Amino acid sequence: MTDENEHVSDDEQPVGDTEWVIPAGHVPADSTGPEPEMVSNDTLCLLNAGEKLSTVEITLSYANGREAGPYLLTVAAKRVRHVRINDLIDPYAPPLDEDYAVVLECNEPLVVQFERQDSRQAENATFSTMAYGE
């Protein structure tokens, strides 16, 4: 936030970063409740606070050394986009019920938040945390 008398330069970077890591991925294979709203999932919440479209590349790294991706998508300027890991299918759907890490790289700064909904039991759990930006 700036004081109305303070000048903001045109080349000031928007909030966020271009490299993000989330090491705590795990999409449960089982769910309880109606679909699609109660399906267990991991979600990336992506905010592009800048003036330009951000092109995003997501790679998933698994404990056994395998990688999934890259998954390519965009986030429009001044927009938020929620991306369920479960919904990534191109080049192929990532396996469920395995530990993984997310490496996210983009050409314009984003703010990234990680969210998990675990509905394996009727008493559902959702948690959220900020990703690590580099």
From TrEMBL:
InterPro entries: ASRT (IPR009794), TM1070-like_sf (IPR036698). It holds the Pfam family ASRT. Coiled coil: none annotated. Residues 1-10 have a biased composition (Basic and acidic residues). Residues 1-40 are annotated as: Disordered. This is Sensory rhodopsin transducer. The lineage of its organism: Archaea, Methanobacteriati, Methanobacteriota, Stenosarchaea group, Halobacteria.
